[in-house]
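Regression report. Comparing outputs from two consecutive submissions.

Submission 1:
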Amino acid sequence: MQTRTLGRNGPTVSALGLGCMGMSMSYGNRVDDDSAIAVIHHALERGVTLLDTSDMYGPHTNEQLVGKAIADRRDQVFLATKFGFVFEPGAARPTGVSGRPEYVRASVDASLKRLGVDHIDLYYQHRIDPNVPIEDTVGEMARAVEAGKVRFLGLSEAAPATLRRAHATHPITALQTEYSLWSRDPETDGVLATVRALGIGFVPYSPLGRGFLTGAIRSPEDFDADDNRRNHPRFQGDNFAANLALVDKVNALARERDVTPGQLALAWVLAQGDDLVPIPGTKRIPYLDENLDALDLTLTAADLAAIEAVFPTGAAAGQRYPEASMAQLNR
């Protein structure tokens, strides 16, 4: 397994991680725990070390699932989880976000219990709370580091100014933000430039465009009734058709290289810098193997130029989230 370093002075992890969210929520057609655990175990056997979860996923059930999967192999895992979304008792959807210190303390302990571990390797604030100074939130996260409950700190979907303030409070090891061929905002909004200036690792989530860049999704009807992608603008109406035309162009390039469009899309993300560690998610072992084989695909300058020509920055049609979720980004 190829490895990469998270940030200038951070830990070494597998060059591709495994996003575990879809095993418990969002993308419909859920798998049973035994099947999900088999995927996680296969990933570890292939050399994947970075597993990504969150207390939001389920909610809560994904942490329990991951904890069960790694119970007898904790030493093989660099475990990342997140906090920040607030759920009322029994609620399936979050009612807001919180970065209050007391919420940080309660969230760390709850995640440790659900995961069944004595420490979390990388602890992210999932979304920034605009009503709490980032110094207060990260200051409390730093106390979890001092207590040995957490090793490294991260933020998700944070703005450059927030990153700088957080990093001045306690070193931030990783920033997690959506990044793929169809979500290239970090290139233009200062996020990539800031993490590189500060020596922070960059962890792209949804590097396959929520599965769209694999070419397997041909119609909105391909989604289960409870699949959250039905609510995302990029998967609706004229946006869907416009984005499918882009993916078909990527697919044509992939055929020329005798690879899948998903592998070409992943290889493109990996080619954007050795400081990127993408975390594609999957619920199926064959798709996991397909993703990992993208590590063997080296793109030439000509390949990258050809991809850029058919899928330039800003080409995707529609926002990446519904309006309410968009308001929580880049704070």
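Submission 2:
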Amino acid sequence: MAQERSIPGCPWAFADDMRGIIDKKEFSDVKFIVGANRKVVRANKAILMARCEVFKAMLLDQKDSIARQKPDQQDVPLVLADVTPEVFMNLLEFLYTNTCTLNSKNVMDVMGCAMEYNLEQLQRICEQYIGETLAVDTASEAMQIAVTYGQEELRERCLDFIEENTESVFRTKGFHELSEEALALLLQSDKLMMDELEILAAVREWATVNSVVLSKSMAEVVQNVIKYVRLALLTPEELKQIEQDNEKDSMVPIKQISEAWKYHALRKSPRHNASVPRPRPRRGTKPREMYAEIQ
């Protein structure tokens, strides 16, 4: 008996042919109203249901609903208000062709859409693209995506990039838009290439922006983040300046400043012990005389 084998043809030729029928009325049997501007996008139920469990459930529910309606009410479109037409077309491209056209402007939104529709393969495609094209202007947003959606591999790639480009990344708009969870994760790294005084200034800018956005005091906004700033790495003179600046907004807890002063008071004492832990310098910590003792 002859042995049967499944031999694939050219996947790109198939993808090009399928791409040509996306949103074409003659090849479609379902209509979507997409985004705030209510753009009409057409698709094929069989393709959507075969490729995506979320769409399968959605379309089966629609079928049941249509069966209970009058004939003149059966051409009711599905409304997708929480996705833009552009991203929805990216989603359809993947479902029809198993490929997706990505760029730095759409990849984050496509990633979020892939999560919403439980398309793991599209998630991996987006994650790969983000990891391979990380740049100063996109690193913070990529880090936020990784933290929000629990993408550990992408999170590590973003962290590595930010550690090497800390100063530049911390100046971007995307840095100011980080969640407190993502920022806290960054501030726990020993490998940031930035001095602690500059890190504190960056955190202050982040807190200033988010205080306005959230209509909260800077102290409230920063309460779960500021504890990861290593004040004991600063000199007594620098701590005095921080105390003066802190009188304006109380961003840094008094207790945290006191702990830094306590470290300086006891660091030369023969009784200096674990009750006043020695701060860990980061890779970007600038030389100060006292660091000779922190070895």
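Expected: both submissions complete independently.
Actual: both completed, but the second showed a warning that disappeared on reload.
Relevant detail on submission 2: The first helix runs from residue 11 to 19.
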